[in-house]
User: Fold this.
Amino acid sequence: MAEINAMELLKKIKSGELPGIYYIYGRDVMTVEETTRAILKKYLGKNWRENVNKIDGKNIDISSLLDIMEISPMFAEYNAIVINDLNAEELSADKINQLTDALNTLPEYTVVIFNITGFDVKNGKKYITGKNKKLADCISKKGLVCECGLKTMTAVVKSITDKAQKYGCSISRTTAQKLAEYCLMDSMQINNELEKLCSYRENQEIRPEDVDRLVSGQIETDSFKLARAVTSLNAGQAFVLLDDLLDKRNEPVAVLSAISMAFLDLYRARAAMTVNKRPNDIISDFNYKGREFAVNNAYRDCRKISLENIRKCICILRDTDRKLKQSPVSQKIILEKALTEMIIAARR
Assistant:
């Protein structure tokens, strides 16, 4: 199945190459939404919001959709339809066939955009599979399938500095990278947090401490900072971060899982370093595409702790997982005890 990226799709839109059917998905949800808007503006003009039919794919009625596809537009040149989060795996084979047959005979005045923002169509795999692949393959024959993957750190940093300037503020590349890492490269969260930072600074420079103070880190980000505090033997910060993770109503098992992933990053980096492997080797071998910064940070922080001590910390986390699921003791106490043991292991 031939695919293009968001940049290639935008070029096609500007050149007027408009096929009529689109399937847009990817980890960069904000780019999925922006690309969808760009298509609608090209077809419907500045008043596109008033003339688009939006359909919830989670509760879709295929028969009703097929009828909408045949409606001749009255107040616009095109009958534009956006179907959000249609998971073809939830449809019967007959419904899939009805839908693909309708797409193959779509009227010239009808534009259909499938945009996926609420689930992973690849289901953690390298390619789209199952019924979603059948739908995407059908669309690729007459339209365009576009994956909006996470941008590179360089592209994200440039986007942050440019947007900060539009808001009347400035931000250094280092601070912009910190913001991107805290938001796990999620464009939508980056944009929301950047607006907040610009409102806070009001035409001044956004500083690194502003990001630390104001940006709401995701569970993975805070867990990475906790792992860094352990390797730096900063017990006070480690316990503050653990309290923050639990105060955000994260499930203790989920918190433990995120901390474990952070220590696995450190372990891989430390093990690779002992055999003269570079960050790019880990990124390739363990599929860190889109999370390259996690590997680079792990390489930086793992120097402070031996491979054996990282292994001890991982064993502590393994035993803690069992205790969380079996012991009647307070889960917070179990996590605090594990954190204490890891700091002792790191110190030794």
Notes: The mean pLDDT is 91.
